[in-house]
Recover the amino acids of this structure.
């Protein structure tokens, strides 16, 4: 999840043009992505991702990251948390709008690799509230927005975390990984 120093996941109108990404960040994040075989999204982030990644590798001038991430995106199962597009059908995509806690726990108990969540601040807040997040990877961008879509707004119960790793990039972005402590 990309965040600002003051804890926003997007600007006032959902803008994300403040996010700094480059080859160094793509390479770093790609190692984590490759350890996952399920991608979980909220509806808004899924619609944004699904409009780009399925064919990103086929576009003229596709970058190494575009090619690698497109291949990964097309190979993994995608889970979309949404009450508005329930029942929709799409290859390698499941839409969940009810019994979310039960169904996410079922996914977590399957054998396989990790489940990774991209963006999706509303979904992440819900998953945090329901104690379904084991690790947080936050890419803190060197910017203060003052207002926007908050990352943690609405999380009612606290969750104890332990810093597992941190990495500062040349761009000024800092990735911090936190793991959940206990239940």
């Amino acid at each position: 999840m990309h965040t600002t120093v003051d804890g926003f996941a997007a600007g006032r109108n959902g803008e994300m043009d403040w996010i700094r990404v480059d080859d160094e960040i793509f390479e770093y994040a790609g190692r984590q992505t490759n350890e996952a075989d399920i991608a979980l999204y909220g509806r808004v982030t899924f619609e944004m991702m699904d409009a780009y990644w399925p064919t990103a590798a086929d576009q003229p001038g596709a970058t190494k990251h575009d090619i690698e991430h497109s291949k990964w995106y097309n190979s993994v199962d995608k889970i979309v948390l949404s009450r508005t597009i329930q029942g929709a059908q799409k290859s390698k995509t499941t839409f969940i709008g009810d019994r979310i806690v039960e169904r996410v726990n079922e996914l977590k108990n399957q054998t396989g690799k990790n489940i990774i969540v991209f963006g999706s601040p509303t979904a992440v807040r819900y998953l945090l509230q329901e104690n379904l997040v084991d690790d947080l990877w936050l890419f803190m961008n060197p910017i203060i927005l003052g207002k926007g879509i908050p990352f943690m707004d609405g999380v009612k119960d606290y969750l104890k975390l332990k810093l597992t790793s941190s990495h500062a990039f040349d761009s000024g972005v800092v990735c911090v990984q936190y793991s959940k402590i206990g239940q």
In short: The two ends are 22 Å apart (CA to CA). The helical segments are 23-33, 43-52, 64-75, 100-108, 121-129.
